[in-house]
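Handout, section 4.2: multi-component inputs.
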Amino acid sequence: MAEMIDDELLVEQFSRGDESVFDRIVERYSADVGALANRLLGWPGEVEDVSQEVFLAAYLGLKRFRCKCSLKSWLFTITINKCRSHRRKQLLRLRTFSRAADKAPSPPAQTAHENPVDVETFNRIRSAVAALPAKYREPVVLRYLQELPTDEIGQILGISQNALHVRLSRARKHLKGNLNQQIER
Amino acid sequence: MTEDKIKNLLQEADRMAGPPAQARVDLSVLRRRAGRRRLVSLGGSVAAAAVLMIALGIWSLTIKTPEPTREQERIITLEAQVNQLRTSTDAALALIHEVLEDERRQSQLDELEAKLASIPDPLEEIRKQVDKTAFILVYQADRLYRELNETKSAVETYNRVIRLFPRNQWAAVARQRLSEIENRRI
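Output:
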């Protein structure tokens, strides 16, 4: 709650013309925005470019922000939109210059006891999540990885609770189909 | 159950992928880009408005009234004829209304005149009544004198007729009767 009030004050100050407060907003939310972008773009994504775009859009639009939702939710909405357009651009690039670039990046080397998931499983999960249509992938990331409450997710995605539950259920069905072996284990 | 498993798998994969390399948001670059964006959007609007103005100017200068085709000319002629017909029809209708109104007024006048004609002339009526009264008086006086031999009453009545209706024809008859009575007395 204190954070929200603080956000409101920052926004108000920014609207009055004190653009230096934007540094604090970036400092506070850049990690969250980066993490969400990374997850939406499929471990790892071009997080730096997307984050720059997100905060640029926020900088240009902050004066129009009316505090109907939290600043974090608003930034997450922008992040989702920027990730969508980033993926679209990526797809266009891939179609233009063959599919050679679509190699799965290898995960960071970790020992078995540090993480129970092996490289093969990681790649499978990554592929399964990447194969989800955006309308299913976004709720999955927000719910299971960002662990946001459903009402906030609905607000960010601009959909009703019912629609959100339907999308989550369908996303689980997709994932279950693709990760049956890992789930059964 | 499946939901929990899927959630666990996703979270494990997320942990394995690790946090993203600290995304550095360069604020000076961001401000520079924002300024450029604002300038571009403003410039875009100004340019669009300028292009629109130029296009409108060129359009207004170059636009010509297209020559009417034969069909358009025919339509124009027909429209003019229709308008003319409409005008003459309106005039004819107005004339008809005027004539009908005149006729109505004339018939009202005739009716009033007929009524007036049916009313008897009051002077003539009075004259007739006077004549009738004078006659009755002379007639009564004649009866008094000839049938009842009441000469005195008859003379009074003849004198009354002469006094009341001096210019009436029966006054002349009354005078004649009085002279006859006078002559007989002599």
